[in-house]
Amino acid sequence: MKNIITKFSAILLLLIVGCSEEKVEGLDYGTVSGRVVKAVTFEPVANAKVFSNPNSSTVFTDEDGKFTMSNVPVGDYSFEAQKDSFNTKFEAVTVNVDSNTEVVFELQLATTNNRPPDTPVLVAPADNAVNQNLQLELKWTGDDIDNDSLIYEITLRNDLNDDVLIFSDIEEEVLQLTNLSFGTKYFWQVSANDGVNPPVLSAVRSFSTTAFPDTRFLFVKKLSENNVIYAGDNSGNQVQLTPSNLNSWRPRKNTQSNKIAFIRSSGTQNHIYTMSPDGSSAFKVTNVVPIAGFNSEYLSFSWNNSGDEIIYANFDKLYKINVNGSGLVQIFQTPDGKFISECDWSYDNSKIALKVNSSNGYNAEIYVIGMNGVIQDQVISGVPGAIGGLNFSVTGTKLIFTRDISGFENQDYRQLDSRVFEHNFSTNTTTPLNTEKPAGTVDLDVRYSPSEAEIIFVNTSNDFMSVRNIQKYIIGTTTSRVTLFTNGTMPDWE
């Protein structure tokens, strides 16, 4: 008997060892995890029931909508997520051995017995409000009887063109509008969406922006790395005309065409553009030949009186072009290869004043050419230091400019004592104007006023690092120097 028991025990041991060396089919497992969220808003859905077919086990999501199902036999499943007030969602899942499979359920709210949102009520601005700022807030109220989360969409139109602006995925009941246009009537409407029912539209309201101010002056401010063009009035009020993300400078207004021409960076080149007085309708005039020469910020161009042509320079060549971009023609080339930095076209379109200089900005001259390209008058030459800012009087008998009488020259084109000079062509004399310039400062970028009784210019410290201010002075009147705008350059007064 003892022998029989011993033999049976040995056989049983062999069977156990044999079974431990072979894997039993169907005992491989993996893990399934994921989230249950609301469709559209992706908010988590807590206490949602998640299970599979074939059935493995059942779990419920936590407050973040997350779930984990462990020890799921490998294989293909159809997983199901359920929650009251939501449509059931199915997702196909393949479970692999010793790995985690992730799945996301986006549950749609059940439409049964779910009511649409209330009609949004527009609050501000009031309907038909006028003189609104170019930056303002749209406000409204919205509600949903089922307490569904609402997503808003705002549609904005205007009475100037067919542009339609759509502002989507708004969760708050407010929208900040910026960069609106002057003197424009806008129409706005709000759409409320609960993610279940069709969107509900509000009534349509309108408002009108303030009219463009009566500005006489143009100038440039440096914002970050870009030059930005502004308009201003006699009271010091300022309006930004060009966007801060574009480098735009040297504004020149033509009253006949009611357009402002200016220089703007375009890729690696600088080109001449035009725009309306309010900064809209920017148009690129030059395309083939850019404006170029010594130091782009010291370059200038000029309109003809009628406002249909512009002259500008490309190094040693002077070009004329129609403001629509056609008719480009070279009209002059310097005889000695000097760069043309500045030009001014007389009011009667009979002659052009040019400031030319070497590639470093010095060895400068000012002379006048006729429309045939022949040099008629020599204003100044053979003097050291910087020269600039030339502008004809309306009669063409005088020319105003600035000159650094210190004769200082360096690689940074710094000026130490730049003053305003006036050349009289009738007497062929050049005399300094006593503008009562403070010691240690420089006057730059001088222009006649429309009446020529005053001049406008830039004043700054001769360290060339201090704030630059735009000032005006009544010619021949003591203590008449006043500051119009701070932190401004390149003024124009047409």
| Annotated CATH topology of the largest domain | Neuraminidase
What percentage of amino acids are in beta strands? over 45%
Main structural class: mainly beta
| Poorly predicted regions | 1-24
Count of extended strands? 40
| Average pLDDT for all residues | 91
Assigned CATH superfamily of the largest domain: TolB, C-terminal domain
State the end-to-end distance.
Answer: 128 Å
Compute the CA-based radius of gyration. Answer: 38 Å
Helix content: under 10%
Oligomer: single chain
Shape type: elongated
Characterize the main sheet.
6 strands, mixed
CATH class of the largest domain: Mainly Beta
What count of domains describes the coordinates?
3
> What would CATH call the architecture of the largest domain?
6 Propeller
Treating each run of at least 4 consecutive H or I residues as one helix, how many helices? 1
Descriptive notes:
There is one protein chain. The protein is mainly beta and 494 residues long. The chain is 4% helix and 49% strand. Strands 9, 11, 12, 14, 15 and 16 form a six-stranded mixed β-sheet that branches. Strands 3-2-5-6 form a four-stranded antiparallel β-sheet, with no helix packed on it. The longest helix has 19 residues, at 2-20. The chain is elongated, with a radius of gyration of 38 Å. The protein starts with a helix and ends with a strand. 33% of the residues are buried. The model is unreliable at 1-24 (pLDDT under 50).
